[in-house]
Amino acid sequence: MHPMLKPALRRAWRGRNTVQFGVTPAHAVTLGPLDIATGSFLELLDGTRGLPLLREEAKALDLSDRHVDILVSRLTEAGLLDDPDAGGPEAEALRRRAESIERQRPDAAALSLVHTAPGSGLRRLAARRAMRVQVRGAGRVGAAVAAVLSGSGVGHVEVLDGGRTEPWDIAPGGLPASSVGERRDTAARQLVRRSAVGPRPRTTGAAAGPVSSSGDAALSLIVVAPRDGLSVYAPDPEISLPWIASGTPHLYAGVIEATGVVGPLVLPGGTGCAGCLALCRADADPQWPRMLAQWRSGRRGCVQACDMGLATAVAGLAAAHALSFLDGKLPASTGARWEAAMPALDWRSEALGPHTHCVCGAAERTEAELTSAARATQDTMAG
User: Fold this and answer.
1) Claim to verify: residue 140 and residue 241 sit in the same structural domain
2) Number of H helices, E strands in the chain
3) Is residue 109 domain-shared with residue 156, that is, in the same domain?
4) Phi and psi, residue 162, nearest 5°
5) Where in the sequence is the domain holding 49, given as residue range(s)?
6) For residue 208, what pLDDT band results from cuts at 50, 70 and 90?
7) Alpha helices in the chain (DSSP H)
8) Whether 289 and 150 share a structural domain
């Protein structure tokens, strides 16, 4: 081990004998009491020295081997230490790709704060390369989500949509103006390639993780981001039935009538799905199914009220939630929906629980089973 204080955390002395690592409450840690010699020893934890050399240099500060070992242990338990050589063979392979690792250094730093064991951040970043995500929709939200996921190191991002790119599909970070008139799926594939970090990895073989019957890497997640926001706000349960049957997690995201929506992230059989949402709404408002049928069969040529700034915010939040899930942590959209409407843009969440009459069966499972299923899904996605 070559201990290194995590460079993502700023360091400051709170007083004469207490050090605070980190600025924000989410990740800040205080350590103390520390004497002057131990404070000086912290400067040696830069990843260039192994423990034997650290013990030798500590003697010049009158610090014993036991003192060094205890300090390193405390820093490791607090999630403050990293190791530039840790993370396993996948992380080492990523380190050898100098251009990619330099581009993703901020991503690795962020992951090191969430996954605190030495080398875990880079290992999670390397694991993204074997994952396969499908984005259904190539409008202002969907295309930007696909670009962010590809630029974040997800190795296989595919986008499904029909028709040709229209001028109102264009967005910074999404489809470029040059794609107007092209097939949406073709333009989206080009966007994903331009955004990708390094060459696309192979999809077969042991290193690629679970493999589908077609030989491709199995889907880790589907992001449902159609250009018609109604399909996110009131998703059709029939469309999601194959995903429920195959156990494929899926996340909804979009904009409808100047209202941004992110969630729910559906863990099939574990959290409420589109069918649960439809049944719960019908219970709360018996007229809802009647109105929904009219909206779905209404005039298709209506202009989507999809503000550029709101669409970009929705895409960014959805991509962040997707990445959190792929990296092994359940985001706040799991079994819940986040909404923000213009002009206040005050994000609020609403829990969406399973419905007892839904065919997904999530309501029949015990709380312990749901927790176990969620953890199993996390472990599978994170490799």
Assistant:
1) yes
2) 15, 12
3) no
4) -120, 175
5) 4-82
6) very low
7) 36-42, 51-59, 65-77, 88-95, 98-103, 105-114, 120-127, 142-151, 184-195, 230-233, 237-246, 274-284, 288-297, 308-326, 367-382
8) yes
Radius of gyration of the chain (CA): 24
Read off the tokens for 104: 């993703």
Q: Which long-range contacts (CB under 8 A, 24 or more apart) does 360-363 make?
A: 360/244, 360/268, 360/269, 360/273, 360/275, 360/276, 361/269, 362/268, 362/269, 362/270, 362/271, 362/272, 362/273, 362/276, 363/276
Strand partners, 351: 336
Same structural domain for residues 297 and 166? yes
Are residues 139 and 93 both part of a single domain? no
Say which CATH number the domain at 209 has: 3.40.50.720
* pLDDT single digits (tens) 321-340: 999 999 999 999 999 999 99
Give the integer Cα–Cα distance in Å for 322 and 330.
9
Instruction: Report the C-alpha gap between 295 and 8 in whole angstroms.
Output: 48
CA distance 122 to 292: 46
Question: Edge to edge, what strands does the sheet with 19-21 contain?
Answer: 11-13, 19-21, 29-31
What length does the chain have? Answer: 383
Q: Which residues pair with 217 in a beta bridge?
A: 211
Q: Is the pTM of this model over 0.70?
A: yes
Please check whether residues 114 and 147 belong to one and the same domain.
no
Cβ contact 114:331 at 8 Å: no
What pLDDT is recorded for position 300?
A: 61
What pLDDT does 201 receive? Answer: 67
Cα 192 from Cα 187, distance rounded (Å): 9
Tokens 């007892």 map to which residue?
Answer: 356
- What is the total count of domains within the chain? 3
Question: What burial class does residue 195 get, using C-beta atoms within 10 Å of its C-beta: 0-12 exposed, 13-18 middle, 19+ buried?
Answer: middle
185 and 62 co-located in one domain: no
Strand 250-256 vs strand 219-224: parallel, antiparallel, or unpaired? parallel
Token pair, residue 152, equals 């974040």
